[in-house]
Amino acid sequence: MNSNQKTESLENAPSNTDTDDPMSVDEFIRQLEAKEKDLHITAETTVIEIAESFDDGELPEFLRDEFQEAAPKPVKPAPHKGKAVVNANLESENKQLKDKITKLDGERVEMVRDSQRRAKDFSNYKSRVERERRETFQNQVANLAIQMLPALDNLNRAIDFAVELPQEGEFRQFFDGVVLVNQQVNEVLAGMGI
What we know:
Layout: H1 3-11, H2 25-39, H3 47-52, H4 61-69, H5 83-163, H6 169-191
Helix pairs in contact: 5-6
């Protein structure tokens, strides 16, 4: 079926209006709102209030069948309780509330203990991590020193041997530079506690 056939079938469709006086939807809504205002009907209005507004206080025929089945049964007022019964109920409720307060206080104390324990555990964790970090750093420095010491010993031997050689011109400047480097490395290692 193509779109032209759909349009033709809609144009030929019979109109479903049973009234002789066609009116627009807007006009119909306006008339309905006017009738609601005349009857004082709002969204909060109940069916019972509407029924009471009829002259004879009866529901119209079309509503009577639905609401007679669901009519509320009259509730008998409860017999007046004595003060003793009311006091007993209040005392019972008061005891239950005190028990509940005691239980909640116990839970609060337990929560405070848990939070204090967790704070202490966290503090211990922080100090342990800091201690392990320091130990790791010291171990790394010690490993570096252990690996550097043989090279530093060889540098000291080379300097001791070069001191006995005749020191002339450019060799003297090279020798002084090597001695300064040796001195700096010794100062750095001494600063690290080695």
